Amino acid sequence: MTAVCVPLSLPGAASEAWRSSPSNAVSTASAAVLEQWTDASIQFTRPISRLSTREAFAGLAETWREERGFTSSLHELVLSQSYQQVIALGPDVVPYILDELRRRPDHWFWALSVLTGVNPVPDDEAGNVRAMTDAWLQWGEQEGLLP
Amino acid sequence: MSRKAIEGAFPRLGRTNYSLTSPDSVEYNCVAWAAGDTSRFWWPFERPLAYWPPGVDRRVELEAFVEAFKSIGYEECADGNLEAGCEKVALFADANGVPTHAARQLPGGRWTSKLGQAEDIEHNIYGLEGGAYGEVTCYVKRTR
């Protein structure tokens, strides 16, 4: 059996390129190990990803509520660091935002709109937090994103 | 929010008489409260994420806020002195002139404010100035 020396520091795309090269062909089992190792490596090198998306969102949501102070500015609310970090978690966070919205309505609508590319809120309900919440929860149910 | 947190953001409140008059709520904000609307969040943000009166520029500038109140019957006025039969609104701005807050005058001359997503308070104007909302930069009024 030929030993295959896999470069351990390659990120996902580079690793894929390395594996797809004919001269670096590996067995199916080795490829599976390599894929798992690559995932673990990425997880390790990105500190925020050491938390699950659910845990990361819960912490950021709490920070957002604590740090928003007394502002009435929707611009300030959505441009705050913690709110932007929620968006940076990517589409995987959408079910957790919807679940949070169901339990504790708040101004998550912009994040949802950015992350999903849709906006289910009718124009005549603009600014109505209850109606906007209902519209997003209905959308979430239709999309199968609510537990 | 605790009174300590409120007085931390608005130091003069602690030296004046003010009271909490509602529970906290994310459903409306200070501009909505000043306009007499507790069902919607008013801000010149993109539709439909916030309500803003139709036809008024969605800019976070004093002129747009004055226009928003003009659209519901207000006109600019010189001061916040109590005038019989009039309801006044004070518009606050920060040091850069960016609107931050709106407060509504009560029939007795005191003022009522919604503090962001937190509680409503009854206060005097001096108590809310010099803190997180800056200073009053404009008053508008309409007939009660």
Question: Could you write a compact summary of the structure shown?
Answer:
The complex is a heterodimer of chains A (147) and B (144). Chain A has helices at residues 12-20, 28-45, 53-67, 74-79, 81-88, 94-103, 109-116, 129-142. Chain A is mainly alpha-helical and 147 residues long.
Can you walk me through this structure?
The complex is a heterodimer of chains A (147) and B (144). Chain A folds into two domains: 12-45, no CATH class; 51-142. Residues 1-15 of chain A have low confidence and may be disordered. By secondary structure, chain A is an all-alpha fold. Helices cover 60% and strands 0% of the residues of chain A. Chain B has one domain. Chain B is built from four helices and seven strands; from the N terminus they run H-E-H-H-E-E-E-E-E-H-E. Chain B has helices at 3-9, 30-34, 62-70, 125-128; strands at 19-20, 75-77, 86-93, 99-105, 111-114, 120-123, 135-143. Chain B has a seven-stranded antiparallel beta sheet. The termini of chain B are far apart. The relative contact order of chain B is 0.25. The A-B interface holds A 68-75, 105-107, 109-110, 113, 119, 121-123, 125-130, 132 and B 1, 6, 9-10, 26-27, 29-32, 39-43, 45, 47-52, 60, 100-101, 114-118, 132-133.
